[in-house]
């Protein structure tokens, strides 16, 4: 067996499994006084029912530039991938146009959800994306800023008087608004509808030497922010989370168990969770008391996707505390949320 410090390495997760887990969670060791790690968690779409409609079609939106916005949304939907696989199957526009022609309708004029749902169903779609572009609002706010400059110098060239003066400044803010709807072709009912809005701004003063950003440039940024909001509405997405480690508690830990925890932290800082977890498991056999070690075992189980086991460890750690511990409470809540999310994701992935 291989020795590390005063703690014996035991058989555990292989290198390949550890790397897979690290990639899944994008493990990143974070600095600071308390050791912690950042993970990425896949969460269900905010409009969960809409996200379950996987074969979709996009109708032209009403409002300013509606056809262009719909085309960009169509491209965005086609580009969404989860674990490297396309999430949506987007019905081609010509398939919609063929159905519209057969039904003697006007694609650009279809704003009725029932009609759109019927056309989408005939085209083979489960969901229809439609809605209204609220347009772009641009506002320029003018103000003045105070500057100082040297008003007088002495014989040595040192400034002996400073004068104030004003310069003109402008802050430009552009807001883009979009109200998308997702219609089920099965029922003809709206399963998601929300008004999304985002702003982008720039401010410059006359003495900056920089030109104020154009309305077009800012509107493009605002529109992208709205599309990002919509992306989270209709498909699963990743969120960053921080998991703090607990490495000590109020129990009298033996020197051997304490060394195992320290050695595990050394491997943890090298992003080797496989070795860290082996050492923390060894610490548990040496010191079956306190809450720090079961908490660390819970972290190991959580990182490797064993949520039931992680919850059991975190609850064991909680049972051993003499007073409420915020990090343990957060861990229990986090894993319970992940378990609920997993059930939802299993239905749509």
Kindly state the percentage of residues in helix.
Answer: 40-55%
* Radius of gyration of CA atoms, rounded to a whole number: 29 Å
**What structural class do you assign from the helix and strand content?**
alpha+beta
Give the overall form.
flat
**Can you give the mean pLDDT?**
89
* Main beta-sheet annotation: 6 strands, mixed
- The ordered H/E elements are EEHEEHEHEEEHHEEEEHEHHHHH
| Total beta strand runs | 13
Tally of helical segments: 11
How much β-strand is present in the residues?
A: 25-35%
Span from first to last CA? Answer: 42 Å
Q: Which stretches of 5+ consecutive residues score pLDDT under 50?
A: 1-6, 8-24
Helix and strand layout, with pairings?
Elements: E1 3-4, E2 7-8, H1 15-25, E3 28-30, E4 36-43, H2 48-51, E5 55-58, H3 66-78, E6 81-82, E7 85-86, E8 89-90, H4 93-103, H5 113-122, E9 127-153, E10 159-184, E11 190-193, E12 196-205, H6 215-234, E13 237-244, H7 255-269, H8 273-286, H9 292-303, H10 307-319, H11 326-348
Parallel strand pairs: 5-8, 5-9
Antiparallel strand pairs: 1-2, 3-4, 4-13, 6-7, 9-10, 10-11, 10-12
Helix pairs in contact: 7-8, 8-9, 9-10, 10-11
């Amino acid at each position: 067996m291989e020795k590390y410090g005063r703690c014996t390495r035991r058989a555990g997760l292989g290198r390949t499994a550890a790397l897979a887990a690290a990639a899944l969670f994008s493990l990143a060791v974070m600095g600071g006084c308390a050791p912690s790690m950042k993970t990425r968690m896949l969460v269900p779409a905010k409009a969960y029912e809409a996200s379950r409609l996987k074969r979709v079609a996009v109708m032209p939106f009403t409002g300013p530039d509606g056809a262009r916005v719909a085309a960009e949304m169509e491209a965005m939907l086609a580009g969404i991938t989860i674990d490297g696989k396309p999430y949506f199957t987007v019905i081609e526009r010509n398939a919609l146009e063929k159905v519209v022609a057969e039904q003697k309708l006007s694609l650009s004029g279809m704003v009725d959800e029932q009609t759109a749902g019927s056309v989408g169903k005939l085209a083979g779609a489960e969901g229809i994306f439609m809605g209204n572009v609220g347009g772009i609002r641009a506002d320029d706010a003018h103000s003045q800023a105070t500057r100082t400059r040297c008003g007088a110098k002495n014989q040595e060239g040192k400034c002996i008087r400073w004068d104030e003066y004003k310069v003109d400044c402008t802050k430009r803010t552009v807001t883009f608004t979009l109200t998308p709807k997702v219609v089920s072709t099965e029922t003809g009912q709206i399963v998601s509808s929300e008004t999304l809005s985002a702003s982008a701004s720039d401010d410059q003063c006359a003495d900056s030497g920089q030109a104020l950003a154009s309305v077009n440039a800012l509107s493009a940024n605002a529109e992208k922010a709205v599309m990002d909001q919509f992306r989270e509405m209709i498909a699963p997405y990743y969120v960053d989370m921080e998991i703090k480690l607990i490495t000590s508690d109020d129990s009298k830990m033996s020197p051997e168990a304490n060394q195992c925890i320290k050695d595990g932290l050394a491997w943890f800082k090298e992003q080797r969770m496989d070795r860290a977890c082996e050492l923390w498991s060894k610490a548990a056999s040496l010191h079956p008391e306190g809450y720090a070690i079961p908490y660390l075992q819970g972290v190991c189980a959580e990182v490797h996707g064993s949520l039931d086991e992680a919850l059991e460890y975190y609850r064991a750690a909680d049972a051993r505390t003499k007073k409420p511990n915020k990090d343990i409470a957060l861990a229990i809540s986090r894993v319970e949320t992940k378990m609920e999310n997993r059930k939802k994701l299993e239905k749509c992935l």
